[in-house]
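Sequence in, structure out. Go.
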Amino acid sequence: MIYKSHSKIHGYGLFCRDTILINTIIGVAFYKINNKGENFDEDYCYSYIGRWINHSNKNNVTYIMIDNNIYYKSICNILKDEEILMNYELLPIFENGLNII
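Output:
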C-alpha cells in the first residue's frame, strides 16, 4: 500500500504504491504505551510510518483513534506515487475529545 522514498518536502516521506481511496485506514501513527494521562509524549510513541509522514497544510490524511492507538485515515483519494501528507497541527484535537471508532 505504501513505500518510503525521497520527498520534495523534506528528506524522506511515505508514498502510495497504489491509489488509496477516501476514508481508508492507512496504518498506525502512534501507539499507546502508557496510561498516565499527563501528556501525549509520555503516553504515545510514533510508529514506523508515523516517523516518515511529512507535514503539509494541504494534508491528504487525518488522525483517527481506534482501540487507544492513533491511525492515519485518508480524507481524499490519494493517487499512485503521491506523497502521503499530514497536518501535524491537527494532533491536539485528541487532547480535548477523541474521534473514536
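Check: The CA atoms of residues 3 and 15 lie 5 Å apart. Residues 2-95 form a domain with the Beta-clip-like fold (CATH 2.170.270.10).
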